[in-house]
Design brief:
The protein is α+β, with helices and mostly antiparallel strands. The longest helix has about 50 residues, at about 245-290.
Length: about 850
């Protein structure tokens, strides 16, 4: 049996190549993601461990800023002297480091990274742990001088003697580049600007008696934990102390969010490849076994029992999985190398020579590759075991052509009803968490139901789709339609591979179109300002910019917006951390707000706060309640609830509760924050176009902010939603690639299966061109069938997703008709492309050899 299995595997290796590709792709994404994330993690662990001070003393921050407020937490610079006197301290340094800055050249072009990495301004003091070393020029000496990192200087063409403008929170200032510093470790992609310490304190923090942290070097023989305890005993609470290991761990955790995004995206690709590949492998083995019915019957007649036949087929699957996993692991290493090179282009300089290949990676690769193939081949193997010895005497198949589909009908109906019930429950739910859970369950169940019941839909749907074929293409069209109908299970499984990807893109396209429509409607209904001035990535900006806006000729009403993290002690006993927005008093003049109770005047009054009515009711809050509120830095306040809003609007940006209060209250408790947006109305006698031109001229030296009207604001939201779709389309592309392999495989095996039939057709006058056309039409009708199933399922999912979004205020439902039409047209193209090789092979068959084929 072992010899027979090996000979069978080698005899059919050409037919198994396409199935192996699905395994290779899934394993490559798993291996590549693990290798890349492990490499980046180790590289940055080394960076953080080699550059962190033995102990760092920083400000204690109890609240997490999910939405940046623009403030820079500091400690007193005098703390350095107290720490220096602690036993076991060898040296101390003041650290001044801020990221909320912009650096521009003489042409007002940004000098910072364009990849999302920060621009960091810091004070210069060289130590043996510095990540950079001075390689050109000299260190900054006093005001007006700065150093720049070599990578940024090379990319932006900055040279010694050039003048740059630094836009910081206290204000903008010019510096001459007097030195270039080169990274001695991995460059994380940031742009670094170095100032001397007094200048950094004054220009970046606005005070010469402040620092962002104190770095401490331990004396020989003193371990970090002991030194940390001694410093804590000396300076007391109110500060955050971290050893080098803790700081490296904290920095790695921050980096972990970025790595997780990449890892999960790649694992998402692997998941799609696995899911679609399962259909491909099941179909391939089913067809191979169907074609080998007589061979398996002979084995049974010669004495092989059912277990031996089943093991033989599973062993072939095991071999396929091993080959695919090995090739996939090699491809994963190549993929990781490609990602490392890509990170280099984006500014994160990783070394491919330091690639990390942990034992987990090959183990995971082989588990995925072999496991997927083994599971996918199990059902065909069981079917092979039931081949009767009498099958050796007959020209029979076990593909199940004539087997009834009653069990599928029953099972599919039960699962479909359960899935539909879950989606209906999702639509009826009034809490986001329960709706999302029911949505996930409904999606899984309806997908399974469609896969089970797919063969039941083949005959009625393909009769309609191919109904015009006989009239348009004559006998060739009729035969292509009947070929697709010949084996509903095979056609259903082939179409299912394409269906998965298109269901995904259909569902998320509906969701994104609905989100876009909802945001557009909300902007139309609430935004009353002529213009909004914002940072490109919603980061806060310097008060200097706000002052320039207010001084612009023709600017009438100017309303500022500022965010701050808060913690509310609510009547139900819960403490909720969220973000509150602060506004100037005339909020109603630039926004149309619907109130359930109270008014803007009450909510924005000193010592008051407003919130969304749903959040208030959930936590038992009433107008007039006094809530204990904690602001950054531990500042505490008692705020009176002045109003409840009833906007039904998308909260977005991670803001819970729709909290808002007067800007004066924010400035009282968070005096060092920055504005996140400024809303501007034209003054009487100034038209909007004139004001826009003046604002853009005023803000020309500040490239980090843009002037937007309603149309611009809508476009910005659309672009952000489109980013999500790019990932979806990439997943779709991968699914289509594997689905095309599936259609190619099905047609290729089908051509082999119908060799005698094709030979007879050619003998009675069917031309090569007609034969190719017949196979192309069969491929197209299968692809369109899969596309229609996927779109129907995706539209149902999309409507369900929109119902969940409606609980967050996004109540508009929109259908992306352009996408739907494009998918249908694309499915025709997919069918034509998939049929090229099988049709060409069929047309080149020798007629007599084909007729003699068994």
């Amino acid at each position: 049996m072992l010899k027979a299995t090996l000979r069978s595997f080698l005899a059919h290796k050409g037919r198994l190549v396409l199935s192996a590709l699905a395994v290779v792709l899934s394993v490559a994404f798993v291996a590549g993601s693990l290798i890349f994330s492990d490499t980046v993690t180790r590289t940055f662990d080394r960076l953080f461990a080699s550059t962190s001070a033995d102990v760092t003393v920083g400000p204690k921050e109890d609240l997490d800023e999910s939405v940046p407020s623009g403030r820079t937490p500091t400690v007193p610079a005098s703390l350095k002297e107290r720490v220096a006197g602690v036993e076991g301290v060898a040296d101390t340094h003041i650290d001044v480091s801020v990221e909320n800055i912009t650096v521009v050249d003489r042409d007002n072009e940004s000098v910072g990274p364009t990849t999302g990495a920060p621009t960091i301004a810091t004070n210069w003091y060289p130590t043996d742990r510095s990540p950079v070393e001075l390689t050109s020029g000299h260190a900054p000496r006093g005001a007006g001088q700065a150093m720049l990192d070599a990578d940024t200087a090379d990319k932006k063409g900055v040279e010694l003697g050039d003048t740059l403008t630094v836009l910081a929170r206290p204000g903008s200032f010019e510096v001459e580049i007097v030195g270039i510093a080169t990274f001695t470790t991995t460059n994380p992609g940031a742009a670094l600007v170095f100032l001397d310490t007094p200048t950094a304190q004054r220009e970046l923090l606005g005070a010469t008696d402040a620092a962002t942290s104190i770095s401490v070097t331990a004396a020989p023989g003193v371990d970090d934990d002991t030194l940390k305890r001694r410093i804590a005993a000396e300076i007391g609470g109110g500060h955050e102390l971290e050893t080098a290991d803790e700081q490296a761990e904290s920095a790695a955790a921050s980096l972990g969010g970025f790595l997780d995004v990449i890892k999960y995206v790649m694992l998402g690709f692997a998941g799609v490849a696995v899911l679609v590949g399962i259909f491909l492998i099941v179909n391939t083995f089913s067809m191979l076994i169907a074609q080998r019915t007589r061979e398996l019957g002979l084995l049974r007649a010669l004495g092989a029992d059912r277990k031996q036949v089943r093991r033989s087929v599973l062993f072939e699957a095991l071999l396929l999985g091993l080959v695919g996993s090995t090739l996939g692991l090699a491809a994963g290493i190549g993929l990781a190398l490609g990602l490392i090179e890509l990170m280099g282009l984006l500014g994160m300089n990783l070394k491919s020579t330091e690639m990390v290949l942990k034992w987990v990676t090959p183990v995971a690769s082989y588990v995925v590759g072999v496991g997927v193939t083994f599971v996918a081949a199990y059902l065909p193997a069981r079917r092979a075991a039931h081949v009767s010895p009498m099958a050796a005497l007959a020209d029979a198949e076990i593909a199940g052509v004539g087997r009834p589909l009653k069990m599928r009908a029953v099972a599919g109906s039960v699962v479909a009803v359960a899935g539909a019930a879950a989606l209906v429950g999702c639509a009826a739910a009034d809490r986001t968490s329960s709706a999302a859970s029911l949505l996930g369950l409904g999606i899984v169940l309806t997908l399974v139901a469609t896969v089970i019941a797919g063969p039941l839909l083949v005959r009625p749907v393909i009769r309609v789709l191919g109904g015009a074929f006989p009239a348009l293409f004559g006998p060739v069209g009729r035969m292509s339609q009947r070929n697709a109908l010949r084996n509903p299970r095979r056609t259903g499984a082939t179409a299912a591979a394409l269906m998965v990807g298109l269901a995904l893109v259909g569902g998320l396209s509906v969701a994104s179109a609905s989100m876009t429509e909802s945001f557009d409607r909300q902007i139309d209904e609430t935004l009353g300002a002529d213009f909004v001035v914002q940072n490109a990535n919603f980061m806060p900006f310097s008060p200097e910019i706000t002052a320039k806006i207010e001084d612009t000729g023709g600017a009438g009403l100017v309303v500022r917006q500022r965010f701050t993290p808060v913690e509310l002690a609510l009547p139900d006993g819960e403490k909720v951390e969220s973000t509150a927005a602060g506004y100037d008093p005339r909020l109603d003049d630039i926004a149309d707000i619907t109130y359930a109770e109270g008014s803007s005047r009450a909510a924005l009054a000193a010592g008051h706060i407003g919130m969304d009515k749903g959040f208030a009711h959930e936590h038992g809050v009433r107008v007039g309640d006094v809530l204990a509120t904690t602001f950054p830095g531990g500042r505490e306040a008692k705020l009176t609830v002045g109003a409840f809003t009833d906007q039904g609007s998308p909260e977005g940006f991670g803001i819970e509760g729709g909290l808002f209060l007067g800007l004066k209250t924010v400035e009282k408790y968070v005096p060092d924050g920055q504005d996140s947006a400024v809303y501007v109305n034209a003054a009487s006698g100034t038209d909007a176009d004139t004001l826009r031109a003046r604002l853009e001229k005023t803000l020309d030296p500040y490239p980090q902010v843009q002037v937007r009207d309603q149309a611009d604001y809508k476009e910005l939201i659309r672009q952000q939603i489109a980013v999500m779709l790019y990932l979806v389309y990439a997943l779709l592309g991968l699914a289509i690639v594997i689905a095309v392999l599936g259609v190619v495989n099905t047609l290729a095996l089908s051509v082999v299966e119908r060799t005698r039939e094709i030979g007879l057709l050619r003998a009675i006058g069917l031309g090569r061109r007609q034969l190719r056309r017949m196979i192309r039409l069969e491929s197209v009708v299968i692809a369109v069938f899969g596309a229609l199933l996927g779109l129907a399922l995706g539209l149902v999912w999309g409507v369900a997703v929109q119902q969940v979004l409606a609980l967050q205020g996004m109540k508009e439902l929109a259908l992306p008709w352009t996408t739907i039409v494009a998918v249908v047209i694309g499915s025709v193209a997919v069918g034509l492309a998939a049929a090229l090789l099988p049709a060409l092979r069929a047309s080149r068959m020798n007629v007599l050899a084909a007729i003699a084929h068994e």
